[in-house]
């Protein structure tokens, strides 16, 4: 297929997880023989922080305005078999309407932020999508699965809402033999809704075990957070350092945003990346988690600091290592970028992707 993707960013992972998703997806689509053009709005905050200015797979082009986009790239969009518009694309409503008018092949909206999008649409405050555009996309791809997909079809009129979850890159995330530096770690930017869960599941555990070693990596935590003495802080961790960070932990903690918990079926990329590194997972509970990892065998569920401590102190090394191996096997079998590329390919073929006469 000829595929055109209009996404938030593929050249810069600064402050967004979209780049990681697009990089893996584009690479695997090209490896499967598809021709991929990625179109990215040239924004100053990404221009100043490009960690992959020349993506090696497919073709990436920058545009400075919607006028430039429509003037330079009308032909590729018109003749593509599949055109995908991602969430948070600048002026996404205008871009999406143009794509729907111009494309002769299959059009899809890729919502990497589904619960946020739906909440914004309900308030009339979504800058990159409007309800009247949804039926015009033949395919609505969503980072969130489960009942949310039915809601998108029922309430917004999508002809076909399908999951296309986040994934991990096994070429970047793999086990590394080393002596663990920390008993439990967490990687995530501060957010008001996640902080109480982090307090409950990790910081209470740290206060209850002075001999334990804990670490929290991520920016924007306010000075008001009272960190126990045995919790190390890492202010910023660039994506190339994530795998080494995971493999330096005995266990890693996953904490889910409140809107993702409410929607359910919204796995974090951190779950897949840590599991690919063979690091045992401890997660908060949310609907649908069991469809990605089997609780007790591939992931541990905690609801309190005391429960977290029980995992950290009572599980044998053999049990801990086997838990990590099982989670890694599950990710490699179901949750890599290659799996997502194959899924997108299957969706496109089932919906008859191809140019209209």
The biggest beta sheet is recorded as: 7 strands, parallel
Which outline best applies?
A: elongated
Distance between the termini: 16 Å
CATH class designation of the largest domain: Alpha Beta
Mean pLDDT: 95
Assigned CATH architecture of the largest domain? 3-Layer(aba) Sandwich
Kindly report the CATH topology of the largest domain.
Rossmann fold
What is the H/E order? EHEHEHHEHEHEHEEHEEHEHHEEHHH
CATH H-level superfamily of the largest domain: Glycogen Phosphorylase B
What is the radius of gyration? 21 Å
> What low-confidence regions span 5 or more consecutive residues with pLDDT below 50?
none
Number of helices: 14
Instruction: Record the strand order, biggest sheet.
Output: 3-2-1-4-5-6-7
Strand content: 15-25%
- How many β-strand stretches? 13
Molecular structure report:
The structure is a single chain. This protein has 357 residues and is of the alpha/beta class. The chain folds into two domains: 2-167 and 337-350, Rossmann fold, CATH 3.40.50.2000; 182-334, Rossmann fold (3-Layer(aba) Sandwich). The protein contains 14 helices and 13 strands. The chain has helices at residues 18-31, 44-47, 66-72, 74-79, 92-102, 114-123, 147-156, 195-208, 242-247, 258-263, 269-276, 305-314, 317-334, 337-350, and strands at residues 2-7, 35-41, 59-63, 82-86, 106-111, 139-142, 161-163, 182-187, 214-217, 231-234, 249-254, 281-283, 300-301. Strands 3-2-1-4-5-6-7 form a seven-stranded parallel sheet, sandwiched between helices. Strands 10-9-8-11-12-13 form a six-stranded parallel sheet, with helices on both faces. It is elongated. The mean pLDDT is 95.
């Amino acid at each position: 297929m000829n595929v055109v993707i209009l996404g938030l960013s593929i050249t810069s992972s600064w402050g967004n997880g979209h780049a990681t998703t697009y990089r893996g997806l584009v690479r695997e689509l090209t490896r499967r023989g598809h021709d991929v053009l990625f179109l990215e709005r040239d924004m100053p905050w990404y221009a100043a922080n490009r960690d992959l200015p020349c993506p090696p797979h497919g073709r990436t082009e920058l545009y400075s305005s919607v006028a430039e986009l429509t003037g330079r790239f009308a032909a590729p969009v018109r003749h593509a078999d599949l055109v995908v518009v991602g969430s948070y694309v600048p002026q996404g409503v205008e871009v999406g309407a143009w794509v729907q008018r111009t494309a002769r092949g299959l059009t899809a909206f890729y919502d990497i932020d589904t619960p946020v999008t739906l909440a914004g649409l309900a308030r009339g405050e979504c800058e990159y999508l409007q309800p009247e555009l949804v039926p015009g996309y033949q395919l609505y791809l969503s980072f969130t699965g489960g009942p949310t997909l039915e809601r998108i079809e029922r309430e917004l009129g999508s002809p076909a809402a399908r999951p296309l979850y986040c994934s991990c890159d096994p070429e970047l995330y793999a086990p590394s033999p080393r002596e663990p530096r920390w008993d439990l770690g967490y990687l995530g930017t501060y957010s008001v809704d996640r902080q109480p869960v982090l307090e409950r599941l990790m910081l209470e555990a740290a206060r209850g075990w002075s001999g334990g070693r804990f670490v929290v990596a991520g920016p924007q935590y306010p000075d008001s957070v009272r960190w126990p003495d045995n919790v190390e802080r890492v202010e910023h961790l660039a994506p190339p350092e994530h795998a080494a960070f995971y493999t330096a932990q005995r266990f890693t903690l996953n904490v889910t945003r409140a809107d993702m918990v409410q929607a359910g079926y919204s796995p974090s990329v951190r779950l897949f990346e840590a599991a690919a590194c063979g690091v045992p997972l401890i997660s908060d509970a949310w609907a649908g988690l069991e469809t990605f990892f089997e609780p007790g065998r591939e992931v541990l569920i905690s609801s309190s600091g005391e429960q977290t401590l029980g995992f950290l102190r009572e599980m044998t090394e053999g049990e801990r290592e086997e838990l990590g191996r099982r989670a890694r096997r599950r990710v490699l079998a179901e949750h890599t970028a290659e799996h997502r590329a194959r899924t997108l390919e299957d969706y496109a073929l089932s919906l008859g992707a191809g140019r209209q006469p």
